[in-house]
Amino acid sequence: MRSGIRRRAELSRFDEECDVIVVGLGAAGASAAIEARAHGAEVVVLERAAAGGGTSAMSGGVVYLGGGTALQRACGFDDDPEEMFRYLMASCGEAPDEAKVRDYCEGSPAHYEWLVEQGVPFNPVFHHGCSGEPPNEDGLVWSGSENVWPFDGIAKPAPRGHVPARPHQAGPLLMEKLVSATEACGAGIRTGHRVLELVLEDDGRVVGCVARAFGEERALAARGGVVLTTGGFINDDAMLEAHAPWLRRCSFRVGAEGDDGSGIRLGMAAGADTLHMEAGSVSLPVTQPWGLKRGILINAQGQRFINEDAYYGRLGEHALLRQEGRAWLVLDDGCFERVTYPRDVAAVGESPAELEQELGLPPGSLVATLALYNEHARKQQDPAFHKGPDYLTPLETPPFGAYDCTTEGSLYAAFTLGGLRTDPFGRVLDPAGAPIPGLFGAGRATSGLAVPGYSSGLSLGDGTFFGRRAGKVAAAEASS
Amino acid sequence: MRSGIRRRAELSRFDEECDVIVVGLGAAGASAAIEARAHGAEVVVLERAAAGGGTSAMSGGVVYLGGGTALQRACGFDDDPEEMFRYLMASCGEAPDEAKVRDYCEGSPAHYEWLVEQGVPFNPVFHHGCSGEPPNEDGLVWSGSENVWPFDGIAKPAPRGHVPARPHQAGPLLMEKLVSATEACGAGIRTGHRVLELVLEDDGRVVGCVARAFGEERALAARGGVVLTTGGFINDDAMLEAHAPWLRRCSFRVGAEGDDGSGIRLGMAAGADTLHMEAGSVSLPVTQPWGLKRGILINAQGQRFINEDAYYGRLGEHALLRQEGRAWLVLDDGCFERVTYPRDVAAVGESPAELEQELGLPPGSLVATLALYNEHARKQQDPAFHKGPDYLTPLETPPFGAYDCTTEGSLYAAFTLGGLRTDPFGRVLDPAGAPIPGLFGAGRATSGLAVPGYSSGLSLGDGTFFGRRAGKVAAAEASS
Question: Average pLDDT for residues B143-150, to the nearest whole number?
Fold first, then answer.
């Protein structure tokens, strides 16, 4: 039989039986397990590491939620599921999964309550001036491009980054709480269990899995189904080269050791389709502190290519995929400051022409770009890219300098967004769009909301949201 | 059992048996069938249409070949497999399949001879001044960006578009000859046969297929294997939206009715991996006649974004994927001429400023772009994009005009490049990289050489080349 699959008929017996098996104990897996338990299922969670947490526990902990959560209201922000829907449909790539986006937006306020019920603490304080994780315990941040062009003209902006209350440890805190809740709800957690194969009936139904634990193979049966929440594949060089080779240029790979695509391969072996395997979240955190948004990002032709006040996930995606990772942030003395995530100053010059020459740009290119930019900036305008007025200052005070934003010289943080194709119920689909009986998935083992077009918190967001869905539907499957 | 798969145990008998089944009679299928026959196999070809030909018969007929073919030599061009390898490795996306590219380049001169042996006529005359299919019977053209930046600095350029000798009918001619050769070699051709399922043994080996023909289901056994050569999926709206949504913006879909991804779905049902499902060939044929390369292509910010003398496949890819299909070709009176593929004049103006305004570009943007371009063009230089000197003329003679190159107002021709993952032997691979026993593939049902980074003729090229490989290996399988 093919790699990753065991025929039921080949197994003499199962070593253990339950209703729902969850593979992987990150945020998506914990959510699936908790929800399956809440719907009466007997649940076993298999985690290959020595403890739960996964990539979620290494993350910034931001959860993208909105539509008028209690936290947003407590911080004085109006939001609406419809406005959130408009933003995500406009920002999440060329053809977002409308049904998933719709469900996610409408269910978002209640999903926030659910996270709070699991013990995840959020402080009702909005933090201005940083993208993503704040340096303190504040609970709400901008984590996307909602309030900048072109999205501010498409949907009413609201900050939607919900951050658990522990400075620089929001991800670990989130996972402490979700793993505790998984334990408390009575799911059986088996660490050190690596799933090698899915067990299939001859009719294609997934009825369990074979795991290796402490040197032995164990076969586990699941009456309702198996939920794959094993993460993406940023740490598998072969898959990255085959499917998402551009991400190899990124210097920082965001992922636990387990992000090697194993669950994606298991799902495919069982007949699953995949979506957007080329896509990645690519962050270029060069405009922190925000004052640096007053600079201009230029490409190898000395041209601007984006509004610099866009979210750093959008900056990174455009710089990597449209400019081949060749970019610099040009500043004058008036707006120069130290960048939060250290990177090299690529060049300095007493004039734009000197800086242009130092950077090896085409003669006259940066000079022309700056002249046009300054002409409009003096009038608080940016007709080409529509940067907001807060950051429109002519750059004319020598010396001039440029931060290196090339993939060779700068921090690009990446993880994969492609994976198993699922429906809004967390069911894994085959290439014809039909659910594979008994197989579920959530989190970055699946293709989620953003493919590409990332706003931070969407992975913890769709992972927990659709993880719950998968757990619930698998539990119902077991009891039917 | 899952959609697309029939278990061998469920079949009482096969209606017909042979060594190798080929699914689809386009260029790849014909090549697979001919080569399998040449290696002694009993071959059945199943074609769902009423006659063979497929998309290959609708194409321009250009075959990308090189490394020093007899045709290249007869036309006075030196070429070398190593130079061809360098060009393809540099142009075919971020991570070309090196083993396939290597084989293709080294085998290219002999593959040309094979096509000639099948009766495909090529006239040993080089045609200057057009990209792709010439208007006459000339046999050799430029069909890529070999002789322009950046590739002219990476590999020694040579024209590699080999065109069968029938004006505007080179594709039909190619397929007349290949289908005739398929008939002549003794392969059994069954038209009107639509393959619904692959037949799998319990160990996963593909041993045949089930086809529907004239209202009845027929089961066919293949001792050596099944070769999927069913084409891409440009004509399947659901697959296009799911996998390659940007291609939906292209006004012209290059493909026969059968390009609905059916073979890709069959292969996946049998456990196949796919590669680069997002990728497409996107042609923007706006610089024909070549004199129009003297214009400048600009984006919605009034900036240039590419050397205009690049091949139109490269222009289209950059315009669609990096500029979101927002582009215009700006000309002055000195270089204006009628474009071969009609498109609208978007605007005219007595000055660059007037044209800029008419196009609704950001104030000052096109004026600045033209000023910088002209300054360098007067010195026969293009430091930003390195357009060749033949097309570097300052644009300064009023009136000025712009051809519409937006996806809304212009011809973009597209087909899909992603598909089943195969090795250089035409074997279809699973997600772990292991061959699926008995399953082979070639042509646009598979991911080929260009993913993306298209030069015309690569699909007919890799389809026929690796189609032959698949036929040969499947035949060997049958006799072992």
Answer: 96
Number of A:B CB contacts under 8 A?
136
Determine the residue of chain B that is closest to A279 in CA distance. B278
Is A269 within 8 Å of B303 when comparing Cβ atoms? no
Q: Which residues contact B71 (CB under 8 A, 6 or more apart)?
A: B65, B112, B122, B124, B139, B140, B162
The pLDDT value recorded for residue A196 is: 97
Domain ranges of chain B: 1-282+415-480, 285-404
- pLDDT tens-digit readout, B265-323: 999 999 999 999 999 999 999 999 999 999 999 999 999 999 999 999 999 999 999 99
Cβ-count burial of A94 within 10 angstroms (0-12 exposed, 13-18 middle, 19+ buried)?
Answer: middle
Cα distances (Å, whole numbers) of residue A132 to A59, A125, A234, B402:
11, 14, 21, 43
Q: Does domain A285-404 have CATH number 3.90.700.10?
A: yes
Q: Shortest CB distance from A372 goes to which of B274, B364, B385?
A: B364
What is the pLDDT of chain B when averaged over all its residues?
A: 96
Cα separation, A436 vs B206, whole angstroms: 21
Chain A residue closest in CA terms to B269: A271
Q: How far away is chain B from the Cα of A75, in angstroms, using its nearest Cα?
A: 37
pLDDT more than 90, % of chain A = 95
Q: Whole-model pTM? A: 0.96
Give the span between the Cα atoms of B133 and B131, in whole angstroms. Answer: 7
Confidence of residue A340 (pLDDT cuts 50, 70, 90): confident
Q: Which of A273, A363, A384 sits opposite B362 (nearest CB)?
A: A384
Residues 6+ apart with CB under 8 A from B155: B83, B84, B85, B86, B87, B90, B146
Q: pLDDT digit string (tens) for B59-72? A: 999 999 999 999 99
Q: What is the pLDDT of residues A251-274, one digit of tens each?
A: 999 999 999 999 999 999 999 999
The arrangement of strands across the sheet holding B252-253 comes to B252-253, B413-416, B280-283
CATH class of residue range A1-282+414-480: alpha beta
**Helices B27-38, B458-479: crossing angle, 10 deg rounding:** 30
So what's the pLDDT on residue A172?
A: 97
What CATH architecture does domain B1-282+415-480 belong to?
3-Layer(bba) Sandwich (3.50)
